[in-house]
Design goal:
single chain, 330 residues, alpha+beta, 5-stranded antiparallel β-sheet, 9 helices, disordered C terminus
C-alpha cells in the first residue's frame, strides 16, 4: 500500500509554525468558522463558454478584483476523468484592480496568489469569476513549466493526464477544486499577506468607523471593529455580556439581529460577509437608496449607545464564543 505524501498540508503546517501569534490566531479563527462565510463576492452571473486565454477577475473583498487566466479551457482527457474532463485549468495572480478593466493586468507567474488548479464553469455561472477579455496565450505561457502534483502517486501531471518526468517550477494539487476551496485558498493567502488588500490606494468615502464603496454592480458597506467608536461601544457591550467579544464577526451578529427585529425589509437580498476586523454587506441588486438608508440605520445603532445597550439587554443574541476571538490589533 502506498503511503500518501500530503505535500501541500505539510507546507501549510510548516508555514503556520513560523508565524507570529497574532497571525496564528487569525488562521485559527478562519479555520474554525464555516467557510461559507468567506465566500467570494458575486460580480455578475453569466453563462458563456469558457475558453483558453480568458482573463477574468475574482473579488474576495469589497471593490477589489484580482486577475486570473484560463491556461486550458475545456480540458480534453482520453480517460474522460469526471473531475478534469471538460473543466478548466486556471491561475490567479496577485495583480489587482479597483475597476473591472484591463488597466492593471500585469501577470507574474513567479508570484501567484494561489496555486494553479482545475475548476468547473460553475464559478462563472454563479458570478464569482467574471471574464473581461480573451487574449491568446503567449509563447511564454504556452511553454510554462507548470503542472499538478498527485500526492498519492508522488508524480506530476499535466491537466490532460500526461505524466511529467520532472518536478515543474509551478504546480498545484492534482485534484478538482470546489468554489469554497478556491475562496478558502485566497482568503488564507490574504490573512498571511494583508497588504494585498490594502485600501490606501482606494478612493472611497470613509465615515470614521463605517465606509461605503460603489461600483457598477452594487454598494459595499463595511463596519470596522477596531475604530475608536466601535471599540468604545464594544467595551460597554462586553461589560453587560461577557460572551460579546466585539470583533468583526460579533458586530455582524449584532447588526443582523437588530435588522431582523427592527428593520426586516433591509435584510431582504442583503449579502453578508464578515472577516476578522470588520463586518461587510451589500445588496445583490444595486439599490443606492436602500443602501444609504441601511448605512444610516447602522450608524444609529452604533452612535445611540443607550438604545443599543437597551436592545442587547432585551434580546437574546447568539454571540460567537470568545474562545475563538481574534486579536484585532494590526
Amino acid at each position: 500500500m502506498l503511503k500518501r505524501v500530503d505535500y501541500f498540508r505539510k507546507i501549510k503546517i510548516d508555514k503556520y509554525n513560523e508565524l507570529d501569534e497574532k497571525t496564528k490566531r487569525k488562521l485559527d479563527l478562519f479555520y474554525n468558522v464555516d467557510h461559507k462565510q468567506h465566500q467570494l463576492f458575486e460580480i455578475k452571473k453569466i453563462k458563456r463558454d469558457i475558453q483558453t486565454g480568458d482573463i477574468f477577475v475574482v473579488s474576495p473583498r469589497e471593490g477589489i478584483y484580482f486577475y486570473g487566466r484560463v491556461l486550458e479551457g475545456n480540458i480534453e482527457r482520453e480517460d474522460k476523468d469526471c473531475f478534469f474532463h471538460g473543466n478548466h485549468f486556471i491561475v490567479i495572480f496577485k495583480c489587482k484592480t479597483y475597476e473591472i478593466n484591463m488597466d492593471n493586468y500585469k501577470p507574474d507567474y513567479n508570484d501567484l496568489l494561489v496555486n494553479p488548479c482545475v475548476i468547473a464553469s460553475e464559478y462563472w455561472y454563479k458570478g464569482y469569476f467574471y471574464t473581461i477579455a480573451n487574449i491568446p496565450l503567449t509563447e511564454y505561457e504556452k511553454n510554462l513549466d507548470i503542472g499538478l502534483y498527485h500526492s498519492l502517486w508522488n508524480k506530476y501531471y499535466l491537466p490532460n493526464g500526461t505524466e511529467l518526468k520532472h518536478k515543474p517550477k509551478i504546480f498545484g494539487s492534482y485534484s478538482f477544486t470546489t468554489i469554497i476551496g478556491v475562496s478558502g485558498e485566497i482568503n488564507y493567502e490574504l490573512i498571511l499577506k494583508p497588504e494585498l488588500v490594502d485600501y490606501k490606494e482606494l478612493d472611497f468615502k470613509l465615515d470614521n468607523y463605517i465606509s461605503h464603496f460603489k461600483n457598477v454592480h452594487t454598494v459595499f458597506i463595511s463596519v470596522y471593529a477596531d475604530h475608536e467608536t466601535t471599540l468604545r461601544l464594544g467595551d460597554k457591550i462586553s461589560l453587560i455580556d461577557e460572551k460579546a467579544h466585539m470583533n468583526g464577526y460579533n458586530w455582524g451578529v449584532l447588526i443582523m439581529s437588530y435588522l431582523r427585529n427592527k428593520y426586516p425589509k433591509y435584510v431582504e437580498d442583503l449579502v453578508v460577509k464578515t472577516v476578522a476586523g470588520k463586518f461587510e454587506c451589500y445588496y445583490e441588486k444595486k439599490d443606492i437608496k436602500k443602501s444609504n438608508e441601511l448605512i444610516e440605520i447602522i450608524k444609529g445603532l452604533i452612535e445611540n449607545e443607550e438604545e443599543t445597550i437597551k436592545y442587547i439587554k432585551t434580546h437574546e443574541i447568539e454571540w460567537i464564543d470568545k474562545d475563538t476571538k481574534i486579536l484585532l490589533e494590526e
